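debug: dumping io for the single-chain case to check the tokenizer round-trip. Nothing else runs in this session.
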Amino acid sequence: MSKNFEDLQRLYEQSQSRVLESEQVLAEDEEAMLRQTLEDIEGEIDRCEKLRAKLGRVLDYNKLKKQGFSAAQVRDFAEEDSEYITKVDSYYARNLQRRKYMFGYPANMEDYSYTTSYLRHLESKMYLMNNCGDPYQKGNYGMDSKSTEKKIISLVADNFGISPGEYWGYITSGGTESNFWGIREGFNRFPNGKLYFSKDTHYSVEKYVFDGENRERYPYEIIDVDAYGRMSPERLFEAVENDRKNGVEGVILVLTWGTTCRGAVDEVQKITQGLRARGIEYYCHLDAAHFGGISQNQEDAPKVDNLATLGVDSLAISMHKFMGTARVNGVLLALTRRDRPVIDYIGQEDSTLLGSRDYLPFSTYQRAREMLLRRGNHHYISNVCYFENGMKLAGLSYERFENSNTFVIHKPCDKICKKYQLATFLDSDGMEKAHIIIFPFHEKEIMDELIGDLLGLTANHLI
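debug: decoded output
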């Protein structure tokens, strides 16, 4: 790299002054020069990291010899490590390539900002940060990140129109744990109640109602969906009225804000208002794993504007889906929670389901701020429109529900499903379907390639 540290520092100061202290943006040649400089720095960092690892391994192996391992044993360890590092290097390269062709599952893998990347770097050098127990209570374990966890929860709650002091929540291991928490809380409120969810609800909900011997843990009923993939309010009301006559006391309801296969949004307010009008007590948990992460400034997106107005008690979102955090984590939000006994071992209550929580706190908070507060009006929809126009021009049939970034198609050949990592499923009519989920990170050239493969015009692209 031709520039020394002092040159780079001056470049930073000049560039930052231009961007932060004037209304002008950088000229194209200035932006290109900065990007090239960053690529050069990253290349230098990679080379230094590899050299650092090699030099450090010498000290690692020397330490093993001091501990009594023989030279032959240490040589075997070194060979094992070298082979493993080579395999991981290969996986890393494949991972970057496969990311471009990932269309079958909800995960927004946009490039990280440089701020987020730096925070991830710092997190990689830290030791265990264990947020055990209630995030709003301080226990015996001091190496936690609960202050950041509360910031993330507050940021998400504000996005759903919930005022400070009107909610409780925590970072979960993902949407499944959040759904389990909501169902458990519902049956805590109504021990003699019954669980209702639609046949298009995420499979985790049905999984939770069975114990390890495949016996029902809770009474439940699966409600049919309408032509739009939404739970039928009429079928639900009919089932609830019949059960009430038979002694069921209380409704535990799981509704969906973006179903797994189609991205359908249940008529939440119509259902909760209908239950209240009938004098039926209920606990409503809203599974908004995917669309719940879409911020208020994403044009044409299905937004949850206000939890209380919808009549919802708790909500689950998955941060690795639309927001695209680096780990599989979710946020559970609830308007109320039950008090729990203090656990002596951790010195606090534990209102969570799994107890300990593992996530990347600082980069997650930064990513959430960027996705919820720093994206333009067309950020979400531009790629969706581009892909939809391409499908129409190609004459390819698809189904897309209003405001959804999910395109349902007839299942293509196995090679295409494997290349683009498409999730497949059986439709209600017994036909094999697949869905394509479009995110802002997808490259236009790769979307064109997918459409071409679906047309069968570019079979040579198949891998």
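debug: round-trip ok. Residues 28-66 form the longest helix (39 residues).
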